[in-house]
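Q: How would the structure tokens look for this protein?
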Amino acid sequence: MTGILDDAKKEKYCQLRAGGKSQRQAYLEAFPNSRRWKPQTVDVRACELEKDSKVLVRLRALEEDNEKKAGLSRKNLLDKLEAIINTEDIIFRGNDVMRAIELYASLCGYNEQKSDNAQEKEAQQELLDAIRGIEHRCG
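A: Here is the predicted structure in token form.
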């Protein structure tokens, strides 16, 4: 595994990202002064940071370490949950599908209500509407 970054804030950002936080969430937490910025500015800065070669290498190392420990990558888990959500199989009933949707939403960060960004709020609302629609169909 690649060593810890010299810059404590960048290291914290990497740890948070590897732990499943979005770029924005990790940046806001690692760089507290950024909380006063516009959401778009935070997004741009987080994107720039994510392109930093040292940050990229550290992120990949942390993700690989997490996958080894878990035995299942985040992407694989999301793929499995997506398969449950989209299945027509009778084995999975309404509650199983709902739990899969809720876990999927949680892992993707869709259920966080802290965002000031209108697009994120709109995406969250669309997801909640989709969940309600599935609840209605699964009865």
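The mean pLDDT is 80.

Residues 110 and 123 are 8 Å apart (CA to CA).

Upvote if useful.
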